[in-house]
Design goal:
single chain; mainly beta; Porin; 2 helices; 52% strand; globular
């Protein structure tokens, strides 16, 4: 934990120094030459792009178009995961300028194009890019993603088969993914109806011993999802109040371009309340996921909580609940705590008897892009087996 905390403290100190407004007096010296003045002006111009004139503080899109409502945000994100180990993500997000002829819609996501690549200590890697936009005065929302990855994970077995719980099997899943999604606002309400197409090619290899591997071969999953959602959040990145909920039914089939026939169902919701003169934001997350018995093992749902290894608690049914209170110190800084629990089981009736996974922790956020409402910070999470640090952009629930 020493290296993790050193990294955390170093980044916090950097943000604090940049965010401060302390001016240090310089010793008397000879008047600067013309070249020195030009160099100083160029340096000041560059760094001033990251200072918000509204409050004189660090802001990644302050020098962008539309006064910080758009711009390019480069990201270098160190992280750590119980399964993947220390990792590094390098990405860039471009927030497109809003159309001045269109009246802004409260809570509507901005148009953005993104791309990035990540590597981990356990030799996993991923590359992805995508685009998200809003049309027709906020009534139509589109999202597209194209990516490729090679991920090294551990297989603990499902809740009904704990054969590998004490000695999990190492496996690699490599493949490509394409996602195309569109949703449409129903009238003038906050309800949306939409559809999504997912196409995945996967190549799975299990490591039985350091010398022996079992390759399952390349397979293709193709599925169509129909969903209804409700979204009244005041911001898509770091919400303070409102509701986001969705119900989706997915069907994967050979007729859609895949090699498997199976069904999935997903029910998820988050609720945010703003309390105590808007200083406290209280968030509640609930999720339920289901996949039928014909789904390949890598498509089964699992309990997803900060501090838990990926694919650790797996079953045909998975349920998760998490709460997160966040206290606003000032307009930029906030601190938070969180705690959650979940279970996974092969049968719905057995969820109550399944092993309980849990997490708890603390974190902080800094408002990196004021006009966009985008905050970022660190979370220190404790699960049943270990403690992990996460660097989070936006909200940790990603929903």
């Amino acid at each position: 934990m020493t290296k993790k905390f050193t990294l955390l403290l170093a980044i916090v100190a950097t943000v604090l120094v940049v965010d401060s407004t302390v001016v240090v007096a310089q010793p008397d010296s000879a008047p600067p030459s013309g070249d020195d003045e030009q160099a100083a002006a160029e340096e000041e111009s560059f760094f001033s792009r990251f200072i918000d004139p509204y409050d004189g503080r660090l802001d990644f899109t302050a020098g962008g178009e539309e006064g910080g409502a758009s711009g390019l945000v480069p990201l270098v994100i160190p992280g750590n995961d119980p399964t993947l180990g220390p990792n590094l993500l390098m990405a860039a997000v471009y927030f497109h300028p809003p159309d001045p002829s269109v009246e802004p819609v409260a809570g509507s996501p901005p148009t953005m194009t993104f791309g990035g690549a990540g590597v981990t200590e356990n030799e996993s890697w991923a590359v992805a890019g995508g685009h998200s936009t809003v049309w027709n005065e906020g009534r139509t929302r589109y999202f597209g993603l194209l990516g490729t990855a090679s991920i090294n994970l551990e297989y603990f077995g499902t809740d009904s088969s704990k054969r590998f719980e004490s000695d999990p099997l190492d496996f690699n899943i490599e493949g490509d993914v394409l996602v195309q999604q569109a949703q449409f606002r129903l009238g003038s309400s906050n309800f949306f109806a939409g559809g999504r197409y997912t196409l995945m090619s996967t190549d799975v290899t299990f490591e039985i011993t350091p010398e022996d591997d079992i390759a399952l071969g390349t397979s293709v999953d193709a599925g169509a999802t129909a969903f209804i959602s409700f979204d009244s959040r005041d911001n898509t990145f770091t919400p303070n109040r409102g509701t986001k909920a969705s119900i989706g039914l997915s069907y994967f089939s050979e007729s859609l371009g895949g090699e498997f026939d199976y069904s999935k169902a997903d029910v998820a919701g988050v609720q945010y309340w703003q309390l105590l003169d808007e200083r406290l934001s209280l968030g509640l997350r609930t999720e339920y996921h289901f996949a039928d018995d014909d789904a390949p093992f890598y498509s089964l749902p699992w309990v997803s909580l900060r501090g838990l290894p990926i694919f650790r608690y797996v079953g045909n049914h998975a349920i998760t609940v998490e709460i997160e209170p966040r206290w606003q110190i000032d307009e930029r800084w906030s601190v938070l705590g969180f705690a959650g629990a979940g279970r996974a089981s092969a049968h719905f009736d057995d969820l109550g008897d399944a092993e309980r996974a849990y997490n708890y922790g603390v974190g902080f956020r800094y408002l990196l892009a004021r006009r966009l409402g985008l905050a970022a910070g660190f979370d220190l999470a404790r699960g049943p087996e270990e403690t992990t640090i996460y660097l989070t952009f936006g909200n940790a629930w990603g929903f």
